[in-house]
Specification:
Low-confidence stretches: 1-6
Largest sheet: 5 strands, parallel
Number of strands: 9
Radius of gyration: 20 Å
Distance between the termini: 32 Å
Helix content: 40-55%
Amino acid sequence: MQRANDINVSKSAENLHLSALSDASKEVTTTCNILNSFSQSYPGLEPIALFNAICIASTKIADTRPLCGILIAPPGAGKTVSILSFHQPRLPVYLIQTATSLGIVQEVIQKIKREEVSMILISDLIHLISRSKTVVRPLIALLNGLVEEGVVSYHTQLMHVQETGLRAGFLAAITEPEWQSKKRTLLTYGFISRSLPFCYSYTSESKKLGLQKIKERNGRKVSLRPKIPIRKKLVKVEVPNEIKDALEPVAEIIAAGRGDVLPFRGMEDALRLVKAHAVLNRRTEVLDVDYKIVRALTPFFHNPLTGDTCEFYILLNIPAKPEQIHAKLSPHFSRATINRRLHLLKEKAILTKNSRGELIFNQNYAKGTL
């Protein structure tokens, strides 16, 4: 029997996603490349990087607004690394690291109007909202306007902004302690209700492997630049009715984690996620594999509880019996870690069992099951 610490930490999770997605690997080449590159350089960040890429790809979906995501994790957990990896000249992104000028708002708006920018990256949300009101208010007005269907209206003695039809999302990072202490303030600003909080943590195996990777490169930072195919024009993406139906519990999980009373916005976000994952992989039709990926991300939306790579790979491999999950994941995660995650996923009501004793996604998930 494998002991809790009896694993080979030199193994990355590369084979995990390849085996789980083998039947549809040709349909998700971009996803596999992102998961592979981060598993080799920043183990533990694979699902986070994939979520970032999905948000950026959502900017090219017609007839809907882009996704807005907030990464929530302990200090030093790689939030900035994962965001900066997508700060690339060929991508339609704009990075805000410091809020020092009112002019930054006007610059961003002009770039959005020229369709040069459709995703704003904020590497430190707390730093942004901790500035003076004269700096913070126009930036928050911009973010709120983008979230609220693209209408920005802000007027002071120094600035007059009145724009409609703006199309952009944002990706922001915040530490878990700051999230808990500032959540009420962020709710007051108004943009949490339509953004996706994405909470994550590390398994003990990912921590060990991460330390090993740092030692191997003598502490040097690795600048990853995942290749994302970005279309020039917006595209309509079709979603089969059976996948729409299967997304209902995903919508409930998103709504519960965000504190929504009803799951309607959760369903809108769930549809954006599967559509964006299809676009990320150069398709205009959602397939079962897109649903499978989004389903595997649900633990990260289950705020205040967090998700991690072990839970992600468990959900990629269902339906399966517990011993089959252990067989697939045991080279990378200890038996104790797998058992704890299986227990947590059942406790979160994300996993249940069918009549054959297989672990399956809980299609009857409803708000209030915890």
